Amino acid sequence: MCTKWSFCLQSLIATVFNLRSVSKQICSFGLYCVCQGRCAEDLYKGIQSSDSGVRCDSLKLLADVSTDITFAQEFISRDGHSLLVKIVEDAHESVFSLAPLIMTHTLSAFMELMDHGIVSWENLSSVFIKKIASFVNAKVLDTSIQQVSLAILESMVLSSSSLFNEVKQEITLERLISHLQVTNQQLQTKAMALLMAMLLAGGEADRQNIIHSSSSVGDEMAHYLYVLQTVRLNHLEARMRTPLDSYNQEQRDMLHGLRQAAFEMESESGLSNERRRSLCAKEFKKLGFSNNSNPGLDLSRCPPGLLALDTMAYFASRYPDAYSRFVLENSSREDKHECPFARSSIQLTLILCEILRIGEPPSETGSDYHPIFFAQDRLLEELFCICIQLLNKTWKEMRATQEDFDKVAHRSVSKAPITNFTEYVTVTVALISLHHMHFLAVFASRELKERLKPELLELIRQQRLNRLCHGTLFRKISSRRRQDKLWYCRLSPNHKVLHYGDVEEQTETPSIEALQEKIPVADIKNVVTGKDCPHMKENKGKQTKEVLDLAFSITYDVEEYSLNFIASSRTDFCLWTDGLSVLLGKEMSSESMHSELEILLSMEIKLRLLDLENVPIPDTAPPIPKPPSNFNFCYDFSQAEQ
């Protein structure tokens, strides 16, 4: 009976489709619709059959013919889709183990019917949604059922926000990730599609909740989130590797849109072609394009290609006030201190592409995903908008010039460790709404410190040499540890000779001529400290730690002779050992030098970060005013205490 009915039904279906293929030539459209109605009625009866074989064949044929819009209308008009919904809602676990094909064909037919848009997704009941979700959440179930269930949930999520909220309550990220771990590629694809749909349909808070729906993210889950992140970012690769086409009207409009958004546009209709070209070139130059007469040439380098144009256009449209302020602020600066917007944007986009590894295939072991990525539809563009404003601020704080541009940009990419910079970027994006300025302020301070350090080290070196030229009074310690002799040592003004000699107790700074002994700096071989000093070795075990910490010696004449010192304080010890290191062409290493360098760097950075734009600074210090005629205006604290 089953075989006979199936044969008859298949013959009917074949007839209908043959009619459809020749309906324009032989049959009228009315006859075609009648045949489709007959087919829909027969299938409706077959689905209700008590014979499981007939039901299975009917549902399979229904899934095949439901792609036809005319048949779908006929079947739905007979309330056929409601019958399919009831089959799903009434399903129980035994059905899946005994006849999984029935449910697979039911869901496939339902999906085909819904794709025509005749029935709204919002008409579905919560019972149906929960049942479909249970198919996805089941740990042991036929993969064909799960594939179609995932596709149905994806369509629900994309159709309305209310259905998205219901699906979100039933499906967890952890379960979707488990479907990504199977070997069935079709199941992986459907799971990925549903995950993407949920991320796209949800708001920022929803995306964060989806990512953090599990109490902890395991290694496998982190890997798949990393893969998802990489795949989405790599969608930008095509734009990154495509240069601007000067003959593409859309791209030309985007380019001219940057100019129009930055400057007040005068009517160009009355201008000659020559005048119009001159005006455009002038404005593109203000925007920071190197080739102001043909700015498209600046965007011919790939990467970043058109991606740089996309980020600039996004910044100009998303944050028009900040964009205008950037351009106009730099237009009012001196030429050498202008921060070129276009040039900076192209370089910054390139750096961000490298940091986010756009264009690189996902690693098999990678797990470095950023949760904030899933809360931003336009992560690259938003990150660019933050960084370009902070770049302008940093440029102003560092008083950078055009000559510094390549050096600073190169150091940002090649010398700064990409892993560390990525960590900074992660922190920056994660705190977009709170204090996203912190990252580049730290990064700018680091860059500024590196630029200032050589200058300040030279300042410390000169101070050390000046201190040696002034000289210092030292005490000699005899074998009986009596501190009864004094001697003085100082460096000659030309830094070539050390002069020293014995002096009396009350002697002020002696002249070089009064110091009879001398050692040419060229003869000095080394400077040793502490227990390595010859005079400490002679009295090994007899000197206190305090004396050892203050002892240093100069060795000369092939290290056979030495001049031994014991400083009166740690400060003198640091000054002399640093100064002698400078004379020998070595690096200073005392704790005093490091402390002073940090103090100077901190002071200099604070001065550099002062907002002194357009504030005239005189070349010479202003004169100190004369003291007042009396100090009667001073407050007498003694009276307050009484």
UniProtKB/TrEMBL annotation:
<dbReference type="Pfam" id="PF04727">
    <property type="entry name" value="ELMO_CED12"/>
</dbReference>
<feature type="signal peptide">
    <location>
        <begin position="1"/>
        <end position="23"/>
    </location>
</feature>
<dbReference type="InterPro" id="IPR016024">
    <property type="entry name" value="ARM-type_fold"/>
</dbReference>
<dbReference type="GO" id="GO:0017124">
    <property type="term" value="F:SH3 domain binding"/>
</dbReference>
<dbReference type="GO" id="GO:0006915">
    <property type="term" value="P:apoptotic process"/>
</dbReference>
<dbReference type="InterPro" id="IPR011993">
    <property type="entry name" value="PH-like_dom_sf"/>
</dbReference>
<dbReference type="InterPro" id="IPR001849">
    <property type="entry name" value="PH_domain"/>
</dbReference>
<keyword id="KW-0581">Phagocytosis</keyword>
<dbReference type="InterPro" id="IPR006816">
    <property type="entry name" value="ELMO_dom"/>
</dbReference>
<keyword id="KW-0729">SH3-binding</keyword>
<feature type="domain" description="PH">
    <location>
        <begin position="466"/>
        <end position="585"/>
    </location>
</feature>
<dbReference type="InterPro" id="IPR050868">
    <property type="entry name" value="ELMO_domain-containing"/>
</dbReference>
<dbReference type="InterPro" id="IPR024574">
    <property type="entry name" value="ELMO_ARM"/>
</dbReference>
<protein>
    <submittedName>
        <fullName>Engulfment and cell motility 3</fullName>
    </submittedName>
</protein>
<feature type="domain" description="ELMO">
    <location>
        <begin position="250"/>
        <end position="420"/>
    </location>
</feature>
<dbReference type="InterPro" id="IPR011989">
    <property type="entry name" value="ARM-like"/>
</dbReference>
<dbReference type="GO" id="GO:0007015">
    <property type="term" value="P:actin filament organization"/>
</dbReference>
<dbReference type="GO" id="GO:0048870">
    <property type="term" value="P:cell motility"/>
</dbReference>
<dbReference type="Pfam" id="PF16457">
    <property type="entry name" value="PH_12"/>
</dbReference>
<keyword id="KW-0732">Signal</keyword>
<dbReference type="GO" id="GO:0006909">
    <property type="term" value="P:phagocytosis"/>
</dbReference>
<keyword id="KW-0053">Apoptosis</keyword>
<dbReference type="Pfam" id="PF11841">
    <property type="entry name" value="ELMO_ARM"/>
</dbReference>
<comment type="function">
    <text>Involved in cytoskeletal rearrangements required for phagocytosis of apoptotic cells and cell motility. Acts in association with DOCK1 and CRK. Was initially proposed to be required in complex with DOCK1 to activate Rac Rho small GTPases. May enhance the guanine nucleotide exchange factor (GEF) activity of DOCK1.</text>
</comment>
